[in-house]
Amino acid sequence: MATINDIPDVILSNIFASISDTRTRNSLSLVSRKFMLLDRATRVSLTLRGNARDLFMIPTCFRSVTDLDLSFLSPWGHSLLSSPLSDTDPQLLAHRLRVAFPAVTSLTVYARSPLTIKILVQQWPGLKRVKLVRWHQRLASWPIGEDFVCLLEQCENLNWLDLSTFYYWTEDLPPVLQACPKVSASLVHLNLLTTSFAEGFKSQEIKEITTACPNLNNFLVACNFDPRYIGFVGDETLLAVANNCPKLTLLHLADTSSLTDVRGDPDNEGFTSEDAMITKGTLVEFFSGLPLLQELVLDVGRNVRDTSMALEMLNSKCKDLRVLKLGQFHGICLANESQLDGIALCSGLEELSIKNCGDLTDMGLIAIGRGCSKLSRFEVQGCKRITEKGLRTMACLLRNTLVKVKISCCKNLDAAASLRSVEPIRDRIQWLHIDCVWNGWEEIGNSEQVGLSFWHNQVEEPSSLFSLMGSEYDHEMRRKKCKYSSDVSDGYILENNGFWCKKWDRLQYLSLWIGVGELLTPLPAAGLLNCPNLEEIRIKVEGDCRGRSKPSERAFGLSSLALYPRLSKMQLDCSETIGYALTAPSGQMDLSLWERFFLNGIGELRLSELDYWPPQDRDVNHRSLSLPAAGLLAECLELRKLFIHGTAHEHFMMFLLKIPNLRDVQLREDYYPAPENDMSTEMRAGSCSRFEAALNRRHILD
């Protein structure tokens, strides 16, 4: 009987080379020694962890690696090649890396200073793709363009540059691109969507960049559309981008105000006080100049009105467009009678995101559902006039394709209404974001009895909306309604308590927004009681703790997530939770007590991976793990990976050594501005190294 070991090595090598998922390759390499050697010989992408000063631990068996990531070396954020605390010669370390990975053409590195870039590009002058990472501030003493001069001068084959997580000054880049015309002309990917910018690139700078890089296929840039600012982006800039870079297939133009992941004002009706200086005629000309577009993001942050006619041109001018995101665009779909218009005519779209559209209605959603029949992902944010009826009807129309949905900051869609609106695709949806706005559900949050009759009484019929669209659609939806209602046993399961509950068969990823002080416990009662395949959850807690009274409950409610049997990964983001890090005024809680509230009960979950962003005190730029938080995290006994996006004292970190199989822990100050004081008890490289040494000395059973 033949086995897989009888397959010729050439064929096995091709099979291994076709596997790109890192976890799958890691598992295969553990099967046998032969598989391990094949994995090493064919692996082309590698992320290095561990301490950079340990030269003897640099692996030398991955000779085929072309994509190397050095941005997660420890201590995170410390200069890789120019630290005054390191005894290692930077040239020696760089040389050892080149010897170990001679074929590298793609590099990601945390470049705290220009010296790091200068030394590394000397080792791999044939680099084609580079991603730079830096959350620390750029020193004012550095000359303009110092970070990029060596990179563009020495890497003549460079065609891909990502600066989205690299802090620099906007005036650093254009002069260097203009001074290196050959490399600039060869760039096909340029990501300048830097989240740490306050104002973004000015209009003139964008013109200079696009003039210097005429062959760009992908261009992402943070800018400012506010006409009150000097250098704002308007009609002239849009036309310049289209004229200078006609080969673009991916274009992201985002206002810096839209890059912060902060929930908007729920009482705002979607319109801003200022209009962007973008006209309908310019949009038509802009779309006409970019016929190859496949993905377009225009997140303007200022009103762009009456855009229906211009958006109709997308379908005829940009025939390959598949992904579209619009922010602060109004009049995108008028939905007059039964005739399709505006964005509803873009029938080739597969992903659509609509943000802060002040006049989008249920009828507009239905028109989009009719016209954009291939949508697999739909996001709606800050649209105050849409309701459960319109979104539910749209989900009915897109039942065969829609698998990813985001509903955020919509006044008429609380948590329960959002879940009811995606009811038609409940058995198909794989990715979901909702806001945990309970509107009275807190009172029944601890109830486990959610009956079938309750759900039928809560859901309103969408047929009245379809009757407005004409008898043909009314007949079709009545047919679908009969089909769904006759299949109740397929959508509901009988729990041990004798009550029916809805089952989300394919939901694998859940994202939640929740206001500070609110509880997570009503989530199951709101409709997410049975999710047998939910593997990953992201929870973002946002709000100002200052002035708030002590919560009535001891715990935020993480323990209520234990009912999801396959939940193993969590991202708990409290970075936008603001409070007092040190001494709180009398009668108020400091952040350590709020952390105890948020993390209480996390030990009851069977998590293997956790990303945690501690709350912050903006007045002192303090985002640190507290003593109660360290103790509660140490109760997660099944954790394998823990990444804390903040700082921590060394003796607090030692609590984590109680977790028996914990393999990978790292402090990452990946927010701007990252703390500069490397000699504090929270930031010392020596402290990080001692903790990692203690972690690595432990015997791990498996």
From TrEMBL:
<dbReference type="InterPro" id="IPR057207">
    <property type="entry name" value="FBXL15_LRR"/>
</dbReference>
<feature type="domain" description="F-box/LRR-repeat protein 15-like leucin rich repeat">
    <location>
        <begin position="313"/>
        <end position="415"/>
    </location>
</feature>
<dbReference type="Pfam" id="PF25372">
    <property type="entry name" value="DUF7885"/>
</dbReference>
<protein>
    <recommendedName>
        <fullName>F-box/LRR-repeat protein 15-like leucin rich repeat domain-containing protein</fullName>
    </recommendedName>
</protein>
<dbReference type="GO" id="GO:0031146">
    <property type="term" value="P:SCF-dependent proteasomal ubiquitin-dependent protein catabolic process"/>
</dbReference>
<dbReference type="GO" id="GO:0019005">
    <property type="term" value="C:SCF ubiquitin ligase complex"/>
</dbReference>
<dbReference type="InterPro" id="IPR032675">
    <property type="entry name" value="LRR_dom_sf"/>
</dbReference>
<dbReference type="GO" id="GO:0005634">
    <property type="term" value="C:nucleus"/>
</dbReference>
<dbReference type="InterPro" id="IPR006553">
    <property type="entry name" value="Leu-rich_rpt_Cys-con_subtyp"/>
</dbReference>
